[in-house]
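user: can you give me the structure for this one chain? tokens are fine.
assistant: on it. calling the predictor now.
[tool input]
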Amino acid sequence: MPFVRFQNLKVYKLAEELADAVWPIALKWDNLARDTIGKQLIRAADSIGANIAEGCGRHTPNDNRRFVRIARGSLLETQHWLRRAFSRKLITPEQTATLQKLVEQLAPSLNAYLSSIGRPPAGVKHAETPPNDES
């Protein structure tokens, strides 16, 4: 499996964008909100990119896929905490729309990346299988 620089992956950049968008919002909350929902939200959002990066450092496609699945779980956890923040009026409808747009881009991107792990890069053809002479 060729080494992939996680920093160059579109999916990683989207994960960073989501994590970076969450941070300044949670910093403005009062202590109770920051210590409960804020910390959980930030950890979940940061975990998406961290797991993509860790998976890239693994030497087998199966290990990489496992970490991308964990990243997908962290994305769902992030969505949960965003729902809690919205229902408790910690984020505005405008902030929610911005964050939701990022989530909606990241989810299919994570799934596509997961599907691509272990496949040859585009344009690389598989070697043809020789015909079976035992027929």
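assistant: here you go. The helical segments are 10-27, 31-56, 61-87, 93-116. The chain has one domain: 6-116.
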